[in-house]
Design goal:
This protein is mainly alpha-helical and 91 residues long. Helices cover 59% and strands 10% of the residues. The longest helix is centred in the C-terminal third of the chain and has 22 residues, at 69-90.
């Protein structure tokens, strides 16, 4: 829930979509990103109430999941270590 103080602070920004966390503005959202967040929140509410929720996550269901960039290098590194460890155990 947005408080009156938060609402008035956001009005000063003259933007319609702002991502907030614990009452602080994080960044301005474009329309597509705001819509995806709204859909996800609606989907969570539907799931909690035991209703069908998949349609709210169409952007996730229509593609293979991807790791964020900051995790990709780490996973590649761990996989290489595991492969080397397995190779060493066989020799």
């Amino acid at each position: 829930m947005v408080s009156a103080i938060e609402a008035s602070d956001l009005m000063l920004l003259k933007v319609k979509r702002v991502l907030t966390h614990l009452g602080s503005a994080v960044r301005v959202l474009d329309a597509e990103e705001a819509r995806a967040i709204d859909d996800a929140l609606s989907g969570i509410a539907e799931a909690v109430e035991g209703r069908a929720f998949e349609s709210h996550f169409a952007d996730l269901l229509s593609r293979e999941p991807e790791l964020p960039l900051h995790l990709r290098d780490r996973v590649t590194h761990i996989a290489a270590e595991a492969k080397n460890s397995f190779r060493d155990q066989r020799n």
